[in-house]
Amino acid sequence: MNRFLAAACAVCLAGGLHAQPFQPADLETARELRALALESGLAYEITSELTTRIGNRLAGTEDDARAVEWAVDKLESLGFDRVWTEPATFPSWTREHERVAITAPVEQELVALAIGFSPGTREGGVEAEIVMFDDLAALEAAPGEAVADRIVFIKKRMERARDGSGYGPAVAARGQGSMVAAEKGALALVIRSVGTSTNRFAHTGAMRFDAGSRRIPAAAISNPDADQLERLIASGDPVRLKVDIGAQVNEPYTSQNVIAEITGSEHPEEVVALGAHLDSWDVGTGALDDGAGVGIVTAAAKLIDDHAERPRRSIRVILFAAEEIGLWGGRAWAEAHKDEIENYQLAAESDFGAGPVYEISARVSDEAWPVIEAIHAELEMLGIAMGGRSQARGGPDFMPMSIHGLAAADLSQDGTRYFDYHHTENDTLDKIDPAEMAQNVAAYVVLAWLAAQSPVDFGSGPGLIEAD
Amino acid sequence: MNRFLAAACAVCLAGGLHAQPFQPADLETARELRALALESGLAYEITSELTTRIGNRLAGTEDDARAVEWAVDKLESLGFDRVWTEPATFPSWTREHERVAITAPVEQELVALAIGFSPGTREGGVEAEIVMFDDLAALEAAPGEAVADRIVFIKKRMERARDGSGYGPAVAARGQGSMVAAEKGALALVIRSVGTSTNRFAHTGAMRFDAGSRRIPAAAISNPDADQLERLIASGDPVRLKVDIGAQVNEPYTSQNVIAEITGSEHPEEVVALGAHLDSWDVGTGALDDGAGVGIVTAAAKLIDDHAERPRRSIRVILFAAEEIGLWGGRAWAEAHKDEIENYQLAAESDFGAGPVYEISARVSDEAWPVIEAIHAELEMLGIAMGGRSQARGGPDFMPMSIHGLAAADLSQDGTRYFDYHHTENDTLDKIDPAEMAQNVAAYVVLAWLAAQSPVDFGSGPGLIEAD
Q1: pLDDT of A466
Q2: B425 Cβ under 8 Å from any chain A Cβ
Q3: What is the largest CA-CA distance in chain A?
Q4: How large is the average pLDDT for residues B324-328?
């Protein structure tokens, strides 16, 4: 079929399907599941158990191994048809200690966290006069002599936004600041935390870790501490900092993606994939990031598994390993399964806390777009709007497969408060609203069920790359 | 004059004054000062400088000495007529380290702060099974064998209230829990933080420190950590904790109350006293507690000092020492000045953050009550209601003098959010709303000015004790 005919046929199919691609019984089941999800506390219970029994679970640690063991047990006890693990191997990093203090013109301890993959300082730390920059670009533009032998402070603030769009512009300093400052001869990097809270928590997260590139020790200070530092600098006296970090990059470690399946009744080889990541940072208890996602997608699948009617396609819950330190679980999964990408009908990951879903967007074939519209019609009563076409990537852990043309849906969550807690000591269970969480489960259960029943394939494969 | 005649005369005077005790020019000045205060950023600037240049300032430390030096310089540079210090001597306490961790059924670090005057544990800490109580009364009622050789956990929650009334019922565990648990043979005490925040900050504060009574090491854990502990205990497995505290009670230290005066033009010996305390806990930067009070009362006095018209009576700003660890500055001041209590016309302390003032109450002579009512009339446009009679104590640092019959006014602040930050690492400048702070300054400037101009004495002395 040439491209013109294919397009015409897509339009024709789309027109024909627009009225309603789904069987009445499938819609009836979707609505039943949606109602059950809104009443269910299962997602919250799962997240509570993970964050209480395991706590935080940095990839490559004993806590990671305990989390994997917990997840296998949990998914098996929930009665899924199959539960298995698939390996992911990665370099890991261990925080030993960090201390950032003002030493002049006054002595004050600051609330700080080393940035993931920061090297340690020499024993006892480094101490130097500070040089402040507005953002990473300003540091990049600075002459070397302004930076050499100094401690660089980047004061860039993250802006609050429902869609989390303030994160990208601010996180550049965390990702690349250490390398850029190293090139110019700085001794250490300190950044304002990439977060929206005025509470006194520092925000960790990974820096880019390119083997061979020189990096310097780097830490984030809490936003009130960044304000304090700016005020002291504004007062005119030279300000000196001490940065003392102990940290280790470790030998490669192998963790596991943990996968549970509801085996499809008609097309077991065709898979609707719901993702979340099991690992967290080593601070807080990883409740919003991403205990919430683990609870949401597991509960959605469990509701379908408990229903009398079996899905036509298989539904898999994939709890990815080592997302935080470099998408290693997602990379391993893409590498292992990219040759069977056509089997992966539709992928969606929950990894943005537990705020309510406000929009669905999708990247699917033209033929499948009316199916997404019909799914949206069942989400509308949850307050979910129709979002853009071709924009979805399915979430971070599906991105390595997305570049091969994975069909994906994004259930965008309200992230207005997400970056108040993300990657901090304050990411704990109490930050989750059970009712908002249940709305998420309702959205995922409708999406997963109807995707499994769709009369049309979603189009994963090289064709979707061309569609971009 | 017998009591009956005195009372009749008071009623007569009250009736006569009710219309308006103040001269029109005094009211005009009060209104000018009020308008200037609402536009002034001085209180915020002072609090910013104290918390930025000095940071926290635990009584008895080098930071305390730096704060005293700063306060003397600041008050002198503001141009008050007289600035001086008066000594206060007290036992002090130093935090060295604290660590509270769950050791079974899982290992997790908790966010904790040792309670002030906690003894240290033995080297390496103590580790034992936990026994949980609803509140101090439940611990008091428990048989010794339920407590001996255990670590006691008191889970009492503080309730949020505008007037801070949830503090008292919860703080009993902090004040007396260590002694009560010690009597029953417990190894250590851990309490839920006495605060209303769900952010992961522990709340410090002093325990009762009776020489001779046996105490055990005690710490508060953050509210999310207390929730976590409760969930683990509810899961049924025995829960064990490790508590490791290093702390020292030090030799007596002498700090200073720092006092500034606007000398009265007609009755310099008669004093309107505005108080705040200069010390803070050793966490956060003591912005709300009580950097805000220092800023508010100093700015109010400075506005009066800058005005062309001199007050009839003297107005003194008293920045008390060592409030947090036992009202030592207030006790020293009462001891030094109780014999001249009649000179202290009216006292009011700002020590409840920077939330807006919503009510004025007072303990003054019957003759002076109409003056308070007339002052209230000038506060009403600030949203301040008339509160109760005979209930005011003027604030914590005036309490030692209050028992001798000090006339006092309370400008009650909205404390709904105060205990989200109080005594935590999170008590920093950004928690202050400059506009709300300016409203406080406006209230204090009206109160101080009109009290200094009052045609009637406020009645400090033994007579006010009888009036209770």
Answers
A1: 63
A2: yes
A3: 75
A4: 97
* SS percent in chain B: helix, strand, coil, step 5: 40, 25, 35
List the structure tokens of B72: 């003397």
Whole-model pTM?
Answer: 0.93
Partner residue facing A199 (CB), from B111, B232, B426: B426
pLDDT, position A18:
52
Shortest distance, CA A327 to any CA of chain B (angstroms): 26
- Cβ neighbours for B116, distance < 8 A, ≥ 6 positions apart: B93, B204, B205, B206, B207, B281, B324, B325
> pLDDT tens digits, residue range B173-222?
999 999 999 999 999 999 999 999 999 999 999 998 777 789 999 999 99
Q: Is A445 helix (H, G, I), strand (E, B) or coil?
A: helix
Q: Give me the residue from A48, A223, A426 closest to B199, CB to CB.
A: A426
Q: How confident is the model at residue B298 (pLDDT cuts 50, 70, 90)?
A: very high
Look-up of token digits 């009362």: B297
| Whether pLDDT at B74 is above 80 | yes
Residue A442 tokens read as 């309702």
Do residues B101 and B247 touch, judged by C-beta distance below 8 A? no
CB < 8 Å to A426, chain B: 199-200, 224
Partner B contacted by A236 (CB < 8 A): no
Q: What is the CA radius of gyration of chain B?
A: 24
Specify the pairing of strand B344-349 against strand B267-277: parallel
Interface probe for A, chosen from B51, B108, B196, B288 (most Cβ of A below 10 Å), is B108
Same fold, A16-81+263-467 and A95-248: no
B48 — contact with chain A (CB < 8 Å)? yes
With the CA atoms of B108, B113, B115 and B120 taken in that order, what torsion angle do they form, in degrees rounded to the nearest 10?
70
Hunting for tokens 């950097």 — which residue is that?
B291
* Interatomic CA distance for residues A302 and A296, integer angstroms: 10
pLDDT of residue B467: 54
Question: Given phi > 0 = left and psi -120 to 50 = alpha, else beta, which region is A408?
Answer: beta
On chain B, the residues whose CB falls within 8 A of the CB of A433 are none
Query: pLDDT (tens digit, 9 = 90+) per residue, B349-363?
Result: 999 999 999 999 999
- Cα distance between residue A447 and residue A459, in whole Å: 16
Residue spans of the domains in chain A: they are 16-81+263-467, 95-248
CB atoms within 10 A of CB B94: 14
ipTM confidence score: 0.92
**Fold (topology level) of B17-81+263-466:** Aminopeptidase (3.40.630)
- DSSP annotation string for A131-162: EEESSHHHHHHS-HHHHTTSEEEE-PPPPP-T
Question: In degrees rounded to 5, what are phi and psi of residue B339?
Answer: -75, -15
Of B106, B224, B431, the CB nearest to A428: B224
Per the listing, tokens 């598994």 go with: A305
What are the φ and ψ backbone dihedral angles of A289, each rounded to 5 degrees? -125, 90
Q: pLDDT value at position A19?
A: 75
- Positions in chain A whose pLDDT score sits under 50: 1-17
For residue A70, the chain B residues in CB contact (below 8 A) are: none
Fold of A16-81+263-467: Aminopeptidase (3.40.630)
- Residue A326 DSSP code: T
Pick the CATH number of B97-247 from 3.40.720.10, 3.50.30.30, 1.10.1740.10, 3.30.1300.10: 3.50.30.30
Instruction: Return the structure tokens found at A243.
Output: 């940065």
CATH classification of A95-248 is 3.40.50.620, yes or no? no
pLDDT (0 to 100) of residue A335: 98
SS3 A73: helix
How many interface pairs between A and B have CB atoms less than 8 angstroms apart? 70
Q: What is the pLDDT of residue A7?
A: 45
Instruction: Test A429 with B224 for CB contact under 8 angstroms.
Output: yes
Of A103, A195, A234, A117, nearest to A422 (Cα)?
Answer: A195
